[in-house]
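Tutorial handout. Part one gives the primary structure; part two gives the three-dimensional structure as tokens.
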Amino acid sequence: MAVRKTKPSKPFMSKIGLPSWGFSLNGQTQPTPKIRNDILWEAMEALITNIPSGKYVVKDSISLTGYFKSICKNLLFKSLNSETARANRQSIYADFENENTPDVSETMIEQETWNGYIELFTQAGKNCRRILEMSFADGMKVNEVAEELIKEGLYDNEQVVRNAKSKCLKRMKEMIGQ
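Part two.
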């Protein structure tokens, strides 16, 4: 004889108290009808496998209906917890994404600005570029810059290097102002 799976009829579900689930969810969202049906089928499957395996033993204090309701309740809470956990993870991830994702427009503006400065810097001239690199990029003091450039024979003394640096900065300011 073949066993045919059919959904439990409404009177059966009402008889064992499952439409109202027989317990309070303490303000949690009620499950959808699809989730209820899934839980019913999973609970019936668990009941059918638990009885022969010895997990449920007939006792005076625990009725079969009570055991079935407790299986349903545990499956429902498991389902609700997984849904809540999923919603929490999505919320946290969305918040994390919003906080850590840089604004692309700001990055593009910064990149364009830096590209403009680099272009101006390349137009400044070889000696001017060298003085500004040593002063600002390498962090050297004017007397150290002068000492090195005098050794290379580019300038005669420290005052000439100071004047050249001043002229370079003025030229850069004018180029930026245009």
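Part three, for discussion. Residues 10-100 form one domain. The CA atoms of residues 52 and 77 lie 25 Å apart.
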